[in-house]
Write a structure and sequence with these properties.
Layout (H helix, E strand, L loop, with lengths): L3 E6 L5 H9 L4 E7 L3 H11 L3 E2 L11 E4 L6 H9 L5 E4 L6 H14 L3 E4 L6 H7 L7 E7 L11 H17 L3 E9 L8 E8 L4 E7 L6 E8 L2 E6 L4 E7 L1 H6 L8 H15 E7 L5 H15 L7 H20 L26 H6 L1
Parallel strand pairs: 1-2, 1-4, 2-3, 4-5, 5-6, 7-10
Antiparallel strand pairs: 7-11, 8-9, 9-10, 11-12, 12-13, 13-14
């Protein structure tokens, strides 16, 4: 089999990992790594045994596919240049900064008949893959994605930086349009929003609570799903999945607690899990999702198969993110039309020294 000629455009924090993995795949020839910083491109190229490039236009005609890992504001401009050349593209999430840009990319990819894959990497998390293999119709979902402030991705806020992962997962799980959105958020550092909470109501009756923060002390990435089939708890960090389902007897007849004698009631708490609620804990730690994502993209390029995360999927997640941001930016902290207390920078001043116990006591 001929080696697939590939390049990585943008080799910063994440792009250098793309380059490292691609350089180690036997069926890939990493022909170049491009970056606006010649020093960074050279550093990564030397590590990966590739060529440093500062003008990605030099790659036209010399690559079979590329991954685009530049800042979000440049996704559309860079990806479009390769798509217009008929070169398959894996573009990191979010697909672009506007839905119009996403539609533009989808159209050009279709016109040239080449794969356009979006880097919603959690679709390749082995714990989510395990969950996705099982029939489940979510009716209530809680999603939490918290991380420490890194100083990266400051060109976008936490919705497009972190929450969009979970928006894509929710759309994939619910398989239904969102009919109503409520959201609020804060810009802790004065720029884009850093903390956001959203409540989504889907047309099929599913409700989701979604939180994202990039100012947390410890990382937390988890998804909890309640469905007629049972409960699923997923930890994206440890790649573990907990499944709970009611026993057949419980589903058919329920627990008649009122009719139980005192001894049976006393034993009930020890019987709930195991007898009445059956549990299964799965350790899904079987490889990293970035490698899986890149291998999947390569397979799509070779076979013409539709990517697991299409351009349309990326566009839908972005469209939902835009609706959430619109709610965040119009939220009234006083429940009124007071324009000084609206949006991510409009949180009213505190009434008193909440965390100063000495001053509070004196007052």
């Amino acid at each position: 089999m001929n080696r697939l000629r590939m390049a990585v455009i943008g080799v910063g924090h994440l792009g250098k990992e793309h380059a490292r993995i691609l350089a180690g795949l036997p069926d890939v020839e990493l022909v170049g790594v491009a970056d606006v910083s010649a020093e960074q491109a050279q550093l990564v190229a030397e590590r990966c045994g590739s060529k440093a490039i500062t003008d990605y236009g030099d790659l036209f005609g010399n690559v079979d596919a590329v991954t685009v890992v530049v800042p979000t504001v440049h996704h559309h401009a860079v990806a479009m240049q390769f798509l217009k050349q008929g070169i398959p593209v894996l573009v990191e999430k979010p697909i672009a900064t506007t839905v119009a840009q996403a539609d533009d990319m989808i159209r050009v990819a279709a016109e040239h008949g080449v794969p356009l894959q979006v880097g919603h990497i959690e679709r390749f998390n082995p714990a989510f893959e395990e969950l996705n293999r099982r029939p489940l119709k979510p009716k209530f979902v809680e999603s939490e994605r918290h991380g420490p402030f890194t100083g990266r991705s400051t060109d976008i806020g936490v919705v497009l930086d972190l929450m969009i992962h979970d928006l894509d997962l929710l759309l994939s799980l619910a398989e239904s349009p969102v009919k109503h959105v409520e959201a609020l958020g804060l810009a802790v550092f004065g720029g884009h929003e850093d903390v956001v909470n959203a409540r989504l109501i889907f047309e099929n009756g599913c409700i989701a609570h979604v939180t994202a923060s990039r100012v947390s002390q410890k990382p937390k990435r988890r998804l909890r799903v309640w469905a007629p089939e049972g409960y699923a708890g997923l930890d994206f960090v440890s790649k573990r999945l907990l499944l709970v389902q009611p026993s057949e007897e419980l589903r058919l007849r329920g627990l008649q607690v009122a009719a139980m004698d005192a001894t049976r009631k006393a034993n009930l708490k020890d019987e709930v899990f195991g007898k009445h609620l059956q549990t299964l804990e799965l350790d899904c730690n079987r490889g990293d999702q970035l490698t899986s994502e890149l291998k999947h993209f390569i397979q799509c390029v070779r076979t013409g198969k539709q990517p697991r995360v299409t351009g349309e999927d990326g566009r839908d997640a972005l469209a939902l993110a835009e609706r959430i941001l619109a709610c965040v930016n119009s939220h009234s902290w006083n429940g009124s039309s007071d324009m000084s207390a609206i949006g991510t920078h409009g949180l009213p001043m505190p009434f008193g020294p909440l965390f100063d116990t000495a001053r509070s006591a004196a007052a």
